[in-house]
Design brief:
- By secondary structure, this protein is of the alpha+beta class.
- It has four domains: 161 residues, Beta-Lactamase (2-Layer Sandwich), CATH 3.30.450; 101 residues, 2-Layer Sandwich (Beta-Lactamase), CATH 3.30.450; 160 residues, Histidine kinase-like ATPase, C-terminal domain (Heat Shock Protein 90, 2-Layer Sandwich), CATH 3.30.565; 117 residues, Response regulator (Rossmann fold, 3-Layer(aba) Sandwich), CATH 3.40.50.2300.
- The protein is built from 21 helices and 24 strands.
- Helix 1 runs antiparallel to helix 2 and helix 14 packs antiparallel against helix 16.
- The protein starts with a helix and ends with a helix.
- The relative contact order is 0.06.
Length: 668
């Protein structure tokens, strides 16, 4: 066969020997075929990995696979080949490239090389044949090895693409697994196709447990309906960020923010969606607590304001009823009617006290008390209010610290809780247990106490537990709302007032209950420091004359009128002022004329505190009796040590007012 005719035959043989191989097997077959077809002792195929280095993909040395690994290009004939041209050095190649140590070490005399050129036109590899004896030039070397080089270029580019894809996948997986967000993808059938550790942990699973499962497995029926609507929007190519509720493996709600977007379509069809998921359960819980606290605070302000205004109206009712009864003979048929009016007004006053208790502004008389002592005094009374089938048990801790509290209000709290426990037991047999003890509250404890985070310290607790029907989460969330009740119409202020009383005592209440498991209400009150002593407003009492002139200051005309008529019926001379500004004008004109000032706390232009300070500047010894619809403790705390002569709570009766003025002036 002539040299020209032998080239196609050799080429056909080369292609035939490598056609069925890919990857590493292809390079191995190519190196062997090149050595055999060119009758060379050595052949190798290499990939250019840097400007100065070739990594050998496969080699054939002396009839068997070689172990070439890398080949440095500097000073070698390969550098020229990788410049983009075919090189033949059939003789004396060592002399021409003395820096190529491989040629020297292997005794190479002949060198033949063709570049492997990428689709971009750049050389990315090399095919080399070497021999230890001088050779003649090989005609048609470009044609013979060029086709094989094209195939080798395709294999190198494919391998590079695969490595790049694997590298991207590794980097993406690292990113997915190290992000603090949950990553969740679903396919076109809403099945989980990818999920990271953070997402699985968020729902209480492992990634393997979630893969392949429908997304609906991780939500309840209400959330499923919303999810179906969301998927329809993804199918229309709409991505969005929205808040959503998932279900934990333990059944708890997991609130998340999902940034969802549809995956790229396949053949124009919906292929699924990707969501970046952030757990906001704790944040949402805190927001709800803040909103609930703000709502209760607003309701408390409203309740306190209503009670205050209502007390003013009750002053008119009780005062007029009292004045009328003073002018009647005991046998008058009108007397019982007036007494009924007075009784109804007093019951209304009880309601305002409950409203003030809910608002935290109840009428408190704070003193050191023993919680055990209060409970022991109530044993008989508590036994009369519980169900006949309920058993009352007491577990009172010895050596219980004293607390600063209003005993009457604490009795009301205990009565409310025990009555509530009895109602929960109903007609069934059950047990109501009352326990006391002490506990330390740390900086991170009891953050779930209702509407209250307690400061660190020692607390005395009283627990009232029952074996009744218990409560679900929805009921527990509302039991302290005013007028919410699971009982008959007309109930509902008991627990709300309890909460207000505890607010006023700087305490808290914690509730544990499940349906069918009964309930436990734990009340906590700060233990009294041993060195503390109860404080009270300083009362200045000086021997005044038996009668005298009283200045009545109130912005309510009805109260001014009633107070004036009551005091005049008691022998006092009365002057009235509509507010603090008018009162100062009247008082400044005749500072020695008044034996007492009856001063309202809440007034426009100048309130009671400001008026009191101005009066004291005009006459340091002036006797002032403060009048307010709020608690005495709240109303008088700013007057401690300033010489306040007395306090009278609204609504007051005629007898109450006369007694208060008499005590301040020394008449009684």
């Amino acid at each position: 066969m002539s040299p020209a005719a032998s080239v196609p035959a050799r080429l056909h043989r080369l292609l035939e020997s490598t056609a069925r191989y890919t990857g590493a097997d292809f390079f191995a077959a190519l190196a062997r075929s090149v050595a055999e077809l060119l009758d060379a002792r050595i052949a190798f195929v290499g990939e250019l990995t840097s400007p100065d280095n070739v990594v050998v993909a496969a080699s054939w040395v002396d009839g068997r696979p070689g172990d070439f690994q890398t080949y440095e290009l500097a000073g070698t004939p390969c550098a020229g080949v990788l410049g983009g041209r075919t090189c033949q050095y059939p003789t004396d190649v060592q002399r021409q490239f003395p820096a190529d140590l491989m040629l020297v070490e292997m005794g190479i005399e002949a060198y033949f090389g063709v570049p492997i050129v990428a689709s971009s036109g750049a050389a990315i590899g090399i095919i080399v044949a070497l021999d230890r004896v001088s050779r003649a030039e090989i005609p048609g070397l470009d044609t013979l090895l060029g086709t094989a080089a094209s195939r080798a270029a395709a294999e190198i580019e494919r391998a590079r693409a695969e490595r790049a894809l694997v590298d991207r996948e590794v980097r993406l997986r690292q990113l997915i697994e190290t992000t603090m967000e949950g990553v969740w993808t679903i396919d076109e059938h809403n099945r989980t196709s990818l999920v990271n550790e953070q997402m699985a942990r968020m729902l209480g699973y492992t990634p393997a447990e979630m893969l392949g499962r429908s997304m609906f497995d991780f939500m309840d029926e209400r959330a499923q309906a919303e999810a179906i609507a969301n998927v329809e929007r993804r199918k229309r190519g709409i991505g969005e960020r929205h808040e959503f509720r998932l279900r934990h493996a333990n059944g708890a709600d997991v609130w998340v923010v999902m940034a969802s977007t549809p995956l790229p379509p396949v053949d124009g069809r919906y292929a699924g969606a990707l969501a970046m998921v952030t757990d906001v359960t704790e944040r949402r819980s805190l927001e709800l607590k803040v909103q609930h606290s703000q709502k209760l605070e607003s309701l408390g302000v409203l309740a306190g304001g209503v009670a205050h205004d209502f007390n003013n109206l009750l002053v008119g009712i009780l005062g007029n009823a009292g004045l009328a009864m003073m002018q009647l003979r005991p046998e008058s048929p009108v007397a019982p009617l007036l007494k009924a009016i007075e009784t109804a007004a007093l019951r209304a006053a009880d309601l305002t006290r409950q409203m003030l208790a809910y608002s935290g502004r109840g009428r408190f008389v704070i003193e050191p008390i023993s919680l055990n002592g209060v409970i022991e005094e109530m044993v008989h009374l508590l036994g009369t209010v519980i169900s006949k089938k309920a058993i009352l048990r007491f577990e009172l801790s010895a050596d219980l610290p004293v607390v600063d509290a209003d005993a009457t209000q604490i009795r009301q709290v205990l009565m409310n809780l025990v009555t509530n426990a009895s109602d929960a037991i109903g007609d069934q047999s059950g047990v109501i247990a009352i326990r006391t003890g002490t506990t330390m509250v740390g900086p991170d404890e009891l953050h779930d106490s209702y509407d209250q985070v307690l400061p660190e310290g020692t607390y005395v607790y009283c627990e009232v537990s029952d074996t009744g029907v218990g409560m679900d989460a929805a009921t527990r969330a509302r039991i302290f709302d005013p007028f919410f009740t699971t009982k008959f119409t007309g109930r509902g202020l008991g627990l709300a007032a309890t909460l207000g009383i505890l607010r006023g005592h700087h305490g808290a209440i914690h509730v544990d209950s499940e349906p069918g498991q009964g309930a436990r209400f734990r009340v906590l009150l700060p233990a009294r420091a041993r060195s503390a002593t109860p404080s009270s407003p300083a009362i200045v009492v000086a021997p005044p004359p038996a009668t005298g002139h009283v200045l009545v200051v109130d912005d309510e005309a009805m109260i001014r009128d009633i107070a004036a008529r009551v005091l005049e019926s008691g022998g006092y001379q009365v002057t009235t002022a509509t507010d603090g500004v008018e009162a100062l004008q009247l008082f400044a004109a005749r500072p020695d004329a008044y034996v007492c000032v009856l001063l309202d706390m809440t007034m426009p232009r100048m309130n009671g505190e400001e008026t009191f300070a101005a009066l004291r500047k005009l006459a340091p010894e002036v006797r002032v009796v403060l009048s307010s619809g709020y608690t005495e403790q709240e109303a008088t705390q700013r007057f401690i040590g300033k010489g306040l002569a007395g306090f009278i709570a609204k609504p007051w009766s005629a007898d109450d007012l006369l007694a208060a003025i008499a005590r301040a002036t020394g008449d009684r």
